[in-house]
């Protein structure tokens, strides 16, 4: 008898935990959707484009941005060096 009541109590606790997790996931999805719509308004893009950006990940976008900045710095450095060489001649 005691084992059955412990089992039932544990079962109810697990059910409550699952229900709470599902509820939190729904809240998180709703919050993400609101954030996407705000980003879309701010950047004048549609919500689907912002969703793609979120899927891609902001980290990857930042990596690409850093890569482009490095290329730009290298290009400027090469131009300056070439100009110095041309001035010497």
TrEMBL record:
Q: Where is this region: Disordered?
A: 1-50
Q: Where is the composition biased (Basic residues)?
A: 10-29
Q: Where is the composition biased (Basic and acidic residues)?
A: 30-42
What is the recorded name of this protein?
Uncharacterized protein
């Amino acid at each position: 008898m005691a084992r059955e009541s412990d089992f039932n109590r544990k079962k109810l606790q697990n059910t409550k935990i699952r229900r709470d997790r599902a509820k939190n996931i729904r809240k998180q999805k709703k919050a993400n959707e609101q954030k996407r719509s705000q980003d879309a308004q701010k950047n004048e893009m549609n919500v689907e484009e912002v969703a793609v950006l979120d899927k891609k990940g902001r980290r990857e976008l930042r990596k690409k941005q850093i890569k482009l900045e490095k290329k730009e710095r290298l290009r400027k450095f090469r131009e300056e060096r070439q100009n110095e060489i041309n001035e010497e001649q």
